[in-house]
Amino acid sequence: MTRPYMPGYGISRSSDGLLPWSFAEERLVAAQRYWLSTVSPDGAPHTMPVWAVWLDQALWFSTGTRSRKARNLRERPACSVHPDGADVVVLNGTAELGADPAAALAAYRDKYAETPPDPLVRVRPTAVFALVEAEFTTSPTLWRF
């Protein structure tokens, strides 16, 4: 864990106030809706809400195989995901389409009381950024994977 590079924002250089990993993980587990950002082949951004579960150090969500999200991720698997909520947690990672392990399907059913209609996508984090707005200058924290 470290401070993210944020020039011009008055972010403390001290390690005081860095957030524990549990801060990010609790929000990744608890959220009901997540905002997924992908990039179209023409470079246009595409952001849509998805249901997801955090399991085994990855985020799992369902999407139709012909959806814009799936088409974008097949072309460019890099993506960002932000769970709804007052505190900021942004997961940057790499998506793997068609991942359907039984544990992720069970976790999805337990959380949403339904079976996902489409294959699951696993997003393995490459970096996670988090901050608490009320502690803007001391809380920004970055984890690299």
Global shape = globular
CATH class: Mainly Beta
Distinct helical segment count: 3
CATH architecture: Roll
| Beta-strand segment tally | 8
Mean pLDDT: 95
Under CATH, the topology is which? Answer: Pnp Oxidase, Chain A
Q: How many structural domains?
A: 1
Low-confidence stretches: none
What string gives the helices and strands in order? Answer: HEEEEHEEHEE
Percent of residues in helical segments?
10-25%
| Percent strand | 35-45%
Can you walk me through this structure?
The chain has 145 residues and is α+β, with helices and mostly antiparallel strands. 20% of the residues lie in helices and 37% in strands. The protein is built from 3 helices and 8 strands. The protein has helices at residues 21-30, 68-75, 102-112, and strands at 34-39, 45-50, 52-55, 58-62, 78-83, 88-97, 120-131, 141-144. Strands 1, 2, 3, 4, 5, 6, 7 and 8 form an 8-stranded antiparallel beta sheet that branches. The protein is globular and about 45 Å long.
Summarize the structure.
20% of the residues lie in helices and 37% in strands. The protein is of the alpha+beta class and 145 residues long.
